[in-house]
Prior knowledge:
By secondary structure, the protein is of the alpha/beta class. The chain is built from nine helices and seven strands, in the order ααββαβααββββαααα. The chain has helices spanning 5-22, 25-29, 48-62, 73-82, 93-103, 160-170, 172-184, 203-217, 227-246; strands at 34-37, 41-42, 67-70, 107-116, 119-128, 134-136, 140-143. Strands 1, 2, 3, 4, 5, 6 and 7 form a seven-stranded mixed beta sheet that branches. Strand 4 and strand 5 (119-128) form a beta hairpin. Helix 1 packs across helix 3 (48-62), helix 6 (160-170) packs antiparallel against helix 9 and helix 7 (172-184) packs across helix 8. The two termini are 30 Å apart. Residues 1-14, 20-30 and 149-154 have low confidence and may be disordered.
Amino acid sequence: xxxxxxxxxxxxxxxxxxxxxxxxxxxxxxxxxxxxxxxxxxxxxxxxxxxxxxxxxxxxxxxxxxxxxxxxxxxxxxxxxxxxxxxxxxxxxxxxxxxxxxxxxxxxxxxxxxxxxxxxxxxxxxxxxxxxxxxxxxxxxxxxxxxxxxxxxxxxxxxxxxxxxxxxxxxxxxxxxxxxxxxxxxxxxxxxxxxxxxxxxxxxxxxxxxxxxxxxxxxxxxxxxxxxxxxxxxxxxxxxxxxxxxxxxx
Length: 250
């Protein structure tokens, strides 16, 4: 997928000073500004490969002033597995700093993105490996390829588990409250057609879901979901379940 180079260049100009500020003081003094740019994480059901494209375009614009190191999704997943880092915690500052330490860089850049129609909106996050300091870059909207169908290049079920987990992550708190409320009303989980957590493939994310649900069941009152929360939960869960069934995840 080809991103708008003009748009990404403007974004890089906005983010570059922040990246430099996050580098360790000794690194800046010695002229070493080594930065890792990781794939951006979808905040909706967008294909993860688009996040990799955002990162590649951004790294290309940063190379003029920084020594940039990049990882694709496969290399990043292998690194995280090797060092015991949970995929569900990828966007946590401590995880990004740990990745940066393993890679031997001064700062790590990643972030979230969403794609709608012909546009991709990215929100970068920068973390200093030395200090753990976090800074958010300026949100930028970038033009997608005119074809607008990044998934077309890949099989419909490629990275399906990660895409389902991305959807589940968005509604994890709502889902935990909803099912805690059902338990409080006497719903027997054994009578369900499938377990509420069966769509989640990431073990850490699944544990987090059940932990949240258990926490709510211990509360004297579980708040009802508002109409807007019900709509968000129902629509997102429907997408996750449909994708999980289509790709034999559940």
